[in-house]
# Entry
Amino acid sequence: VKGSKDAPKAVMDASQKMELFDDELWVEPYKIGVHTASPIKMAAVDENTETPFSELTAAVKPVVEMDKFPVVIGGERPITLGTLNACQDKYPDLSILMLGAHADLYTEAEGNPFDRSATGFTLYTNLKQPVIAQVGVRSVSWQEVAWMEDEQPNINIFWARTQAKWDLTEIINSLSDNVLLSIDMSVLDPSIMPATNSPEPGGIGWYQLLNLLKVLCVKKNVVAADITGLTP
# Structure
């Protein structure tokens, strides 16, 4: 996608302008060890692609096998499938925490099962033991609702409109022990994150997001993460 293809470089450029000291941890986290890998060029995918995002899977899998923590910076949300495929051999019980404004549960879009709007559906159907929690959703279609009502999938949606009543422990407890974290920038309210491909009003705030991630990391084993949906 035209806008989000520039996101990884923009994130890396911005990271050079941040202070290295973290006022919560009271350390400079880079001293723990951070490695920035070279950009991964991936072939386009469509309904005829047998192994979508295989280049990403090949790059991430050795990192996972070494018990390191990969953070994938996209790009568009469908690349999460590449990260998922890199993790499932080591963690067959893997579940996914998806943060974003859109349910993305279309079965396909114009014949393409790897379209952004089908990401949630594709991830769910590729999980060995399907469990997904979606947080911050505030945009969904009747087709997606009809599929959920028909299939009754093991997908727990925590709607943005109820965020004042969220129990973070309840959200985290809906997941398995090993979790893949997928953050689409649209989960944040556009008043603080307008640079997304499909901004939606009513998103969550920065510290609300951090609190959710803290509870997640205390209660679960987060094996990998990706950050997508930025359009600088």
User: Anything to note?
Assistant: The first helix runs from residue 7 to 15. The chain has a mean pLDDT of 95. Strands lie at 71-73, 95-99, 132-137, 155-159, 178-184, 221-228. The radius of gyration is 17 Å.
